[in-house]
Design brief:
Chain lengths: 115, 111
């Protein structure tokens, strides 16, 4: 059973460009979470999605950032008009979403570098 | 979710047991203690979780005090590959909400 997959693993963008990060959850998982880790800082929650719905986006910056988890296909984190401060590691996690054994499983991350 | 307190760093000799403490004095009755770790530059990895009884799996043991205000993660025979930041997180059982990561404990296993 494949784990959480993220691509690309490394992404380089120039200021003002768009970045699209993809996350495929573990098989059978319908809950997806995105976290960001700035250099030398801890992991911060960004957004929590279920299929076709955003459940909690309290950690998302108000502008330029959006996320989706369509009925078919991976979850996408989109950053428009990137700035240098967006350089970070972006991790996706998935879970079953129910029951006490609701641990989240993380992907390897996408490292975004903004030049 | 209850707040947790962990020492910022610890060292452990290779082959010895690593005991990582966590204080969670404001934990509620329906909150579980979860442990994750993050090896440098990798995604966090789930280790173990528990409510009030001690738990053991192939990776580690979790000892929770009777009053549930603190716990200890035990890696019985630490290896160099266990060098990582270890996070203690308290959250409601069955919760599908996000994880709140603190600063964690940087465990360094020394040869």
């Amino acid at each position: 059973n494949a784990g959480v997959m993220q691509n690309p693993r490394h992404l380089v963008r120039r200021r003002g460009q768009e970045a699209r990060l993809r996350c495929s959850p573990m098989k059978g998982h319908s809950h997806v979470y995105w976290y960001r880790q700035l250099p030398e800082e801890g992991l911060k929650f960004m957004v929590y999605l279920q299929k076709e719905n955003i459940i909690d986006e309290s950690g998302m910056p108000k502008e330029r950032f959006s996320a989706e988890f369509p009925k078919e296909g991976p979850s996408i984190l989109r950053i428009q008009q990137v700035v240098r401060g967006d350089s970070a590691a972006y991790f996706c996690a998935s879970s079953l979403g129910t029951g006490i054994y609701n641990e989240q499983f993380f992907g390897p991350g996408t490292r975004l570098t903004v030049l | 979710d209850a707040k947790t307190t962990q020492p910022p760093s610890m060292d452990c000799a290779e082959g010895r047991a690593a005991n990582l403490p966590c204080n969670h004095s404001t934990i509620s009755g329906n909150e579980y203690v979860y442990w994750y770790r993050q090896i440098h530059s990798q995604g966090p990895q789930y280790i173990i979780h528990g409510l009030k009884n001690n738990e053991t799996n192939e990776m580690a043991s979790l000892i929770i005090t009777e009053d549930r205000k603190s716990s200890t993660l035990i890696l019985p025979h630490a290896t160099l590959r266990d060098t990582a930041v270890y996070y203690c997180i308290v959250r409601v059982s069955g919760s599908a909400r996000q994880l709140t990561f603190g600063s964690g404990t940087q465990l360094t296993v020394l040869p």
